[in-house]
Specification:
This protein is of the alpha+beta class and 256 residues long. The protein contains seven helices and eleven strands. The chain folds into three domains: 60 residues; 100 residues, no CATH class; 46 residues, no CATH class. The longest helix has 37 residues.
């Protein structure tokens, strides 16, 4: 109502140059009708603009559906395990809870955000040589581990299986329960050896895995393509001191 009155006043000033004389009751009724039609047309313009923006998001990002109220939001799982339209908030904090870097993105996968966040953090502050960097298992990825090793960053990034052990939860994952014989390019699972066969990509997920095969028992074992990097991280985080360092991540700032 207030918005309509304000629009009415603006149109009166424009039509009658601020003069009240000559503004009859009929004129006023016509003017209110004009205002209503004007507001309706403006609403149509806003709706058309929203639909255009939503269509652009659909076409540019190959999406099946988007939100009309906020087309840039994406469907992703929140911290309660519920899927909803939202944004992915990234924070890099110091051990005393000072925010050193932040970002808001559309990517539902945290693993793709480690390198951008580390680049931002290193632009904002100069890291000391003995700085320890702890992240949760969602960031466990070949590129992230390689990036940390190349940049000389002391990264603590466990796999999901190792996180269960570190968090004292039920251990129902056995992804890392094997050893690797680098000389013979074989993995050893419960005393049985499996020779490296090669990589392949799963059709549905697009995830690249490597296969190890034992011809005697005619069984194979799949491992992630970055299994060597993950084993290095597993072995690195096997000591009580390394686990203590990683557990500091549990007390860091979380976006709400």
């Amino acid at each position: 109502m207030i918005e309509e009155d304000n629009t009415l006043d603006d149109l009166k000033d424009e039509l009658f140059d601020g003069r009240e004389e000559g503004l009859t009751g009929v004129d006023r009724r016509d003017l209110k009708r004009i205002v209503r039609e004007y507001n309706e047309s403006e609403n149509k313009k806003r709706i058309k603009k929203k639909i255009g923006k939503a269509k652009t998001e659909l076409e540019e990002h190959g999406l099946k559906k988007v939100s009309l109220s906020d087309p840039e939001r994406r469907m992703m799982q929140n911290k309660h395990g519920v899927s909803e339209l939202c944004y992915n908030i990234q924070l890099g904090v110091s051990s005393n809870q000072i925010v050193l870097s932040s970002d808001v993105c559309q990517d539902k996968h945290d693993a793709h955000q480690f390198i951008p966040q580390m680049n931002k953090l290193r632009e904002n502050v100069e890291l000391q040589k003995n700085t320890k960097i702890g992240v949760e298992c969602a960031y466990s990825d070949r590129e992230n581990i390689h990036f940390a090793e190349d940049k000389g960053l002391d990264l603590y990034d466990p796999s999901r299986a190792q996180t269960q052990e570190l968090d004292c939860k039920e251990q129902n994952l056995n992804h890392d329960h094997y050893e690797y014989d680098e000389k013979h390019n074989e993995i050893i699972v419960d005393g049985t050896r499996y020779r490296y066969r090669g990589p392949y990509t799963r059709n549905k997920s697009g995830r690249t895995l490597v296969t190890f095969y034992n011809p005697q028992i005619k069984k194979k074992k799949d491992r992630p393509s970055y299994f060597r990097e993950r084993l290095r991280m597993r072995n690195k985080m096997s000591t009580p001191e390394d686990r203590r360092i990683y557990n500091q991540r549990k007390t860091s700032v979380e976006p709400v």
